[in-house]
Amino acid sequence: MRLVTLIPGDGIGPEVTSAARDIVLASGAPVQFEEVIAGERADREHGTPLPRAVFDSIDRTRIALKGPTQTPFGGDYRVHIERDDGGGKVSKRTHPSLTIALRKELGLYVNVRPIRKYPGVASRFEHVDLVIFRENSEDLYTGIERMVDEGTAEAIKIISARSTERVARYALDTMQRLGRKRITIVHKANVLKMTDGLFLKTAQETAKDRPGIVVDQRVVDSLCMELVMHPEEYDCLLLPNLYGDIVSDLAAGLVGGLGVAPGANIGPEYAMFEAAHGSAQDLAGKDTANPMALILSAVMMLRHIGESAAADRVEGALAQVLREGRSVTADLGGKAGTRAMTGAIIEKLKA
Ligand code: NAD
User: 85 falls in which pLDDT band (50, 70, 90)?
Assistant: First the structure.
């Protein structure tokens, strides 16, 4: 039995993680979930949004399925963590958000976001099938910011050849495994000559001599325009952290919205699977959130742990429910709630 840490998260998180958990269990995959609390409830109950119990669990399981967590806009909010480094040593560090804390602490250096149009989901484009590889550890997400004076703030953007090379290598290896043919390196090296210049140069050098893979590059602003006009022409994108965050939400909008886009954070030792969307407080507790993005994140998790047959069964059952269109949530044009859509997928799995 494979143990997986389940983090329900905030807002719609508990509803969509319950859906994904129930579907994984119904798929027959030999998975058992260990639930730990992080986010607002943990903050209320334990005085910190990210208690040590979360790391203790992931240190045991190495795999997490995570719901979205809420981060306040602005202010001086920080997540302080304490982590058992072994041998009685406890480290204390600070991060700008709970999700960034987990990504950094667990060494999850790449965020993979597949963007695929499923039949039955209404969108402007029919043939979108992209994989976004986002560098997940540096750029402006280091949280190094300060007020220079009352009217001026600054933030530090860090790009290293080492992190760029490892994310590029991961993207290229994955592409070769999946038979993908074209990678577009996305940057703003015309203005950010040193940071994005280093990202572009390192990624291009890493991608040299990969048989069967065509490498090209786009400036991020023109890429956004091209994506909204003809997304079918793109295959895989490699981006620094901030552009990767923005472009993956844009890309979700090409195939049905935030409710449909899954994601995986991968590192050498751990992996954490979560939807691209956030905690969507406007929908929280209303049984209206679309569970699809978290279900597809769980599908990625099943493939990652070698349970491909169960992953195919879950994806197939979801695809059938989408095609039929009777039991889908409001963002997909239906009238079903989160629970009813989940129930319909489980029925297909059991049929
Ligand atoms: P959001 O993704 O939470 O929601 C934007 C809007 O998209 C929602 O209001 C909703 O109308 C729609 N939407 C999102 N998910 C949906 C779903 N599953 N089904 C149907 N509709 C859905 O973005 P936001 O409002 O910018 O962020 C809210 C909070 O989430 C912020 O605190 C942010 O920091 C956090 N966030 C967390 C993560 C994470 O934990 N990985 C990721 C993104 C945002």
Answer: confident
